[in-house]
Every structure is written in structure tokens, then in C-alpha cells.
UniProtKB/TrEMBL annotation:
GO terms for biological process: ribosomal small subunit biogenesis; rRNA processing. GO terms for molecular function: ribosome binding. An accessory protein needed during the final step in the assembly of 30S ribosomal subunit, possibly for assembly of the head region. Essential for efficient processing of 16S rRNA. May be needed both before and after RbfA during the maturation of 16S rRNA. It has affinity for free ribosomal 30S subunits but not for 70S ribosomes. It comes from the Bacteria. This is Ribosome maturation factor RimM. Its main location: cytoplasm. It comes from Dissulfurirhabdus thermomarina. Binds ribosomal protein uS19. NCBIfam families: 16S_RimM (TIGR02273). Keywords: Chaperone, Cytoplasm, Ribosome biogenesis, rRNA processing. Residues 107-174 form the Ribosome maturation factor RimM PRC barrel domain. The keyword Chaperone applies.
Length: 180
């Protein structure tokens, strides 16, 4: 465990939240922000933070358990210490995130991108994601308010990280059809 004064928020990617202590040996339950727990499983270290600051912990072990990830951290050896971590946001260093395959993106890469339809209509900016179980849903804030876009290949036709935009082909009725 170490205090991490050198890491800035730009260096850190939120990957989950500590929701509960697990057992009596200091393990914690983390609810990952992605369904697979990619930023947690296989991590060498995690950064836990709250309003008081951040601490970096080396990961001894991590395993999936349903929708949660059970993690054992160096320096956290009992339930009392684990309970003190409940509620903290869990971060991974950006450069330590595992590489993805072609056409795969981390949510932090997509957040803030402009969303356009294939017909040239500006829908807004992708602000956050909803996990519906079946697939993610993009929450887009735009001129007409909030728009929910299913994050499926049939709808999301192009992601241009360099151009900072996402192109979507929404099914009829998903988006209001007033003027472009």
C-alpha cells in the first residue's frame, strides 16, 4: 500500500466501487463498472480513492463471483481494514489497462464523444452508460434532451476516437424524427 500523490485524475480510470468486505481475511467485494471486470481481474495494483485522497494497493489475488470481483490486497489483512475501504472508488492506472481487440473500446475512451446519426443528425454527447444485462446503453445528452442508444453493432455503425465521434443508425422510433 502506498499513498499516491503523483497520480492525477487523467492517469486513473475508474473501474469499480468497493461495496462490501468479504470474509474475515481482509478481502473486499468490488462491483466493476464493466460486466467482465477487465480493469480489476489481472491487475497488479489498484488505486482506491475517496474525498480524502487515494491509496495504491498491490493485488494479491482477484476472482470473479457473479457480478462482483473478490479482491485480496496487500496491507489489508482483516475484516476491519476491509470495511474501512467500503464505498471507495476503484481505479486502474490508464497505462496498465489490458489491451482490447479490434472494434473494442473502454467506456472512458467513448465518454464525451459526439454522437451523430447516419443521416447527419447531431444527437449530443455520450455522457454515461447503462448496463442492462443484455447490452450496454449509451446515455447521450443533446439539444432535444437525453437519448438512450443501444450499444449494439446493428445500431453503432462507427466509432472514430481520433475524430471524437460515434455514428449510429437508430431503429425507427428510437429518436424523435423532427428536423435535422
Amino acid at each position: 500500500m502506498s499513498k499516491r500523490p503523483g497520480a492525477t485524475s487523467a492517469d486513473l480510470v475508474p473501474v469499480g466501487r468497493v461495496v462490501k468486505a468479504h470474509g474475515i481475511r481482509g478481502e473486499i467485494r468490488i462491483h466493476p463498472h464493466d460486466a467482465e471486470g477487465l480493469g480489476i481481474l489481472g491487475a497488479d495494483a489498484l488505486v482506491l480513492g475517496d474525498s480524502r485522497g487515494t491509496e495504491t494497493f498491490r493485488v494479491r489475488a482477484a476472482r470473479p463471483r457473479g457480478r462482483l470481483v473478490i479482491v485480496s490486497l496487500e496491507g489489508v489483512a482483516d475484516r476491519d481494514r476491509a470495511e474501512a475501504l467500503v464505498g471507495r472508488e476503484v481505479h486502474q492506472l490508464r497505462e496498465a489497462m489490458p489491451p482490447l481487440g479490434p472494434g473494442e473500446y473502454y467506456w472512458f475512451q467513448l465518454e464525451g464523444l459526439r454522437v451523430w446519426t447516419t443521416r447527419g443528425r447531431y444527437l449530443g454527447v455520450l455522457r454515461r452508460f447503462l448496463d442492462t444485462g443484455a447490452h450496454d446503453v449509451y446515455v447521450v445528452d443533446g439539444p432535444q434532451g437525453e437519448v438512450l442508444i443501444p450499444a449494439v453493432p446493428e445500431v453503432v455503425t462507427e466509432v472514430d476516437l481520433e475524430g471524437r465521434r460515434i455514428l449510429v443508425d437508430p431503429p425507427p422510433g428510437l429518436v424523435e424524427t423532427d428536423a435535422v
